[in-house]
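Much of our argument rests on the idea that a fold can be written as discrete symbols. This step matters because it turns folding into a mapping between discrete strings. The record that follows shows the chain in one-letter code together with its fold in token form.
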Amino acid sequence: MSNENNDYTVPSDPAIRKRIRDAVSEASAVQQKIDDYKAALKDIVEVAKTDLEVPKKTFTKMVKTFHKQEYAAVRYDNEVFQEFYETVMEDKN
């Protein structure tokens, strides 16, 4: 069976169909884990905001920077931006 709107053919082999069902089921389980982790992360951010009084934007940037181990790059980018901004915006000419 072919579908005119898409470039695929529904497999006739029952073993292939089962593998597809298994892959869909496995992917769905992974997607559920992702959803659960996102909910947990949201809870952590809320605790940081309410209990620890860390602004959400600051906390999430810290988490991202720490996770990617890119503090030096973030710091450098901020310094370059600061220098550029000050040079351009403070020039009264």
User: Anything to note?
Assistant: The radius of gyration is 24 Å.
